[in-house]
Specification:
Length: 422
């Protein structure tokens, strides 16, 4: 277990940044104060660096079991550790789908063996994620993080209502990929200016927000905890804002790429293709406002690795999905903190504290707890080169761009899991 004294750092404690030393003894946070004198632990000067709680991502595709040519639990969690994450939640579009206790155990056994950080798996809402038959929520409730059919929207209102009722009984959240398939019309990028100029088929904003609207009404009826995945439209943000104003247990996330780009930034390349798509400048601006006013409480990457072959077929034919674990911290720092949209403290809240608190997980750096933190250089400039990624997935819209902010050191559960500090 780790023994280390970090000297002269800027530390995030209880929502504030303070200048302090941090002492780790046997993997436990032993002390945090302005001056710590300790002769036994190795000492590292981290002046000009920040010590913040490990990041948490509630929306990650680790691809195993079933699709290990895209990513494995080992490679995905190593990528997460490099990106500063100490907790990720793995989505259920796997083979076999974790829709039974037995199938969930297959995934959990690999996690127990191969993960280098904490991984909490989702269970599916419907069997095979096909939307036809509800899984046994009661049997799986204590073995999963939450229930989601991510990758697909639950098309049946009756099915979603039943799922919400069952999840509410077991105290579990429904986490929804919202997509009304009847409104897709064969689209594969945002139905906006870029699509019209370049002759592409567009995905309407209504395909997302109409299903969110439906689900929020069901959440109000049932009282279930309801979380919307990767929101991309201004209408969705407003629906969630109104739900929160009513006091409903409704939350949502967005991804760094929706805050950094609009559809006019697209290129004719698969690294700009994801679902939901990057939308208009007005949508992007509304999402930024949603972060600022607390409507959007969580940043999640929707890290979705694919093979070179799957992503090299242009906007129309490439698979949906981009990677994000190794760029997320820097992207949010660059596009949200640097321009003054949010404070650095707010970045910590939306990337570390809130994702845990919303789902009832302890958050923050506290004396007496197992060490779970990262050391970052907020000012470090670097150019995104996917060939340097630990992830097996190499496709990101941030490729070739200059970002600010680098993760130097990641400690999870009292152990070093990524290190270029010492």
């Amino acid at each position: 277990m780790l023994n280390l004294l970090l000297k002269n750092g800027t530390v995030y404690v209880d929502g504030k940044l303070i200048k302090a030393d941090v002492l780790i003894k046997d993997g436990i946070v032993a002390d945090i104060k302005q001056e710590i004198c300790e002769n036994n632990a190795p000492s590292v000067d981290v002046d000009k660096l920040h010590i913040i709680p490990g990041l948490a991502d509630v929306h990650v595709h680790l691809r195993e079991p079933g699709f290990s040519y895209k990513e494995t639990i080992h490679s995905g969690t190593k990528s997460a550790a490099k990106g500063g994450f100490t907790l990720v939640c793995s989505m259920p579009n796997l083979n076999p789908v974790p829709d039974t206790v037995q199938n969930l155990k297959i995934e959990q056994d690999i996690i127990d063996t191969d993960a280098v950080i904490k991984v909490m798996p989702y269970a599916a809402i419907t069997k095979g994620e096909k939307g036809k038959e509800l899984v046994d929520i009661e049997a799986m409730a204590d073995k999963c993080f939450a229930f989601s059919d991510d990758g697909k929207g639950v098309q049946s209102e009756e099915m979603m209502l039943l799922a919400m009722k069952k999840a509410k009984e077991k105290g579990k959240a429904i986490v929804a990929h919202c997509e009304d398939e009847s409104l897709l019309n064969g689209g594969y990028i945002h139905d906006g200016e870029y699509a019209r100029i370049h002759g592409h088929k567009g995905i309407s904003s209504a395909s997302e927000y109409k299903q969110v609207e439906r689900d929020v009404a069901l959440a109000e009826r049932t009282g279930v905890q309801y979380h919307v995945c990767h929101i991309s439209t201004k209408e969705t943000a407003e629906i969630v804002r109104k739900a929160k104003a009513k006091g409903l247990k409704v939350s949502c996330e967005t991804g760094p790429h929706y805050l950094a780009f609009c559809d006019m930034d697209l290129h004719e390349h698969g690294r700009f293709k994801m679902n939901p798509p990057i939308r208009s400048a007005s949508d992007r601006d509304a999402l930024i406002e949603g972060i600022k006013d607390g409507t959007i409480e969580v940043i999640a990457t929707d890290h979705a690795p694919h093979s070179d072959e799957e992503k090299s077929k242009g906007l129309e034919k490439s698979n949906m999905g981009v990677v994000g674990l190794e760029t997320s911290f820097a992207a949010v720092n660059t596009y949200m903190v640097k321009p003054g949209h949010i404070s650095f403290e707010k970045l910590v809240e939306i990337m570390s504290i809130n994702p845990r608190k919303i789902f009832g997980i302890e958050a923050g750096i506290k004396i007496g707890d197992r060490a779970d933190f990262i050391v970052v250089d907020r000012e470090k400039e670097w150019i995104v080169n996917p060939e340097e990624f630990v992830s097996q997935g190499k496709f990101t819209p941030f490729e070739g761009l200059k970002l600010y902010g680098d993760v130097l050191f990641t400690v999870c559960d009292g152990e070093i899991v990524y290190n270029k500090l010492i």
